[in-house]
Amino acid sequence: MDGNLASFDVCIVGGSISGNYLCYLLSNTNLKIIVIEEHEQVGLPFQCAGIVSQKLSRLIDLPKEIILNRVKTAKIVGPSGVYIKLSGKEEPYIIDRIGLDRLFFNKIKLNENITYIFGERFKSFKYVRDNHQKLVLIETSKRKLKAKMLVGCDGPLSSVAKSLGIKNKNLYATQIRIKGQFDENEAAMFFDKRWKELFGWIVPEGKRIYRIGIASSKNIVNNFRVFLNRINLNMKQKIDQQGGLIPFGLMNKLAFENILLLGDSACQVKATTGGGIIMLLIAAKYAANCIKTCFKQKNFSKKTIKKYYEIPCRSIIGRELKTHYLIRLFLERFSEKDFEKLFQIIKTTKIENHFSLYGDMDFPKALLFQLLKLPFVISFFFKFLMKNPELLVRLLLLIFFKVEVES
Ligand SMILES: Cc1cc2nc3c(=O)[nH]c(=O)nc-3n(C[C@H](O)[C@H](O)[C@H](O)COP(=O)(O)OP(=O)(O)OC[C@H]3O[C@@H](n4cnc5c(N)ncnc54)[C@H](O)[C@@H]3O)c2cc1C
Fold this sequence. Notes:
With 407 residues, the protein is of the alpha/beta class. It contains twelve helices and 18 strands. The chain has helices spanning 17-26, 55-59, 97-108, 159-163, 220-230, 277-297, 302-333, 336-348, 351-358, 365-371, 375-387, 389-401; strands at 6-13, 33-37, 51-52, 67-70, 73-77, 83-87, 93-95, 114-118, 122-130, 133-140, 144-152, 170-179, 186-190, 200-206, 209-216, 238-247, 255-256, 259-261. The protein starts with 5 loop residues before the first strand and ends in a 6-residue tail after the last helix. The model has no long low-confidence stretch (mean pLDDT 92). Bound molecules: flavin-adenine dinucleotide. Flavin-adenine dinucleotide binds next to α1, β2, β3, β12 and β16. Flavin-adenine dinucleotide (FAD) binds next to α1, β2, β3, β12 and β16.
């Protein structure tokens, strides 16, 4: 093989939050790292509602400037307009997402072992042998290079994942930032059959600016118009508009020969909210540990990557992501009446306390187990499953046989 090609230990594709954070976690090693980012600047284009649980400040050293606001209440609005308000110990942050992406980049950009290249696209890779060692030969839009390990941090449409035969199922998302008169302390979620895979949201950025958006699998432009009419928005105060994709489903395979996937490329995204930041930060710590171990053991096999990255990830976040997905399968099938009935149960019982005590935006399993101990909740879900037998079959296949059936 061509000995003149630039050679790296690790090649990270994607210089957004997962790529930058992983690179930062590896920056205390002697590994020679290259990050390939197709855009010209870190953090742009901005594509996020920026609502993240307080775990963020436990996972990373979070500067105050990144936190723009905090919300005390979650307002959940059913299709008929009936709603409940939930509040608990959790007061999620509304973050400066561009700032978060740049935080780690700024910490490592002068590190002599780290090279960032912007405005360049990863195109493909193939395995090659060099001195009896298996390497990855990477082709970008401008050059070829070789690396011992390749990490796909290249988001929902990941080209690295595609090269491995993995294709995410994505939702379309659109959002505006607008001056408005909503509650500054409240994040609102609007459910509707037309955008059943997620919801419409109003997230208060602070200083009377709101991030208002929606995600759905189809008719996004029309659905957004319907949603904006529903909340009576005066568009004269619009500041800007963003769009993006949100991966939807269960977490992908993460480990391959010399290669791993992280973040949206691996579908490490909560199917209930579309949030990916907390999950990918947790996964990045395992990814960094795995990469360090691979270099220590000089072993880049799929088996080693699975042992030190995929298996711990599955047990810590994979199961929770599955729970999010199961909850989503229920919500997708909820009718107006089901939402009303559930809200009624929540309002007329002491169930709200369960949300304050056990509620966790990222890890819903504990709350779910507690709720499923309550007879009126069991009765609601039993009746719901009897009305939706195909869902029952799908849940059983998913839980017991790990088989996913498309609806
Ligand atoms: C509208 C919207 C709202 C959201 N709101 C929230 C929220 O409130 N809370 C939350 O936690 N999450 C939210 N998310 C999800 C969150 O933004 C993602 O989970 C997170 O950005 C994933 O980070 P990532 O680094 O894995 O991927 P991305 O942020 O998608 O970054 C991928 C990077 O790879 C680059 N890239 C892609 N392909 C290539 C290539 N071939 N070559 C080189 N570079 C490439 C891209 O330019 C990009 O910089 C939202 C997403 C959207 C779209």
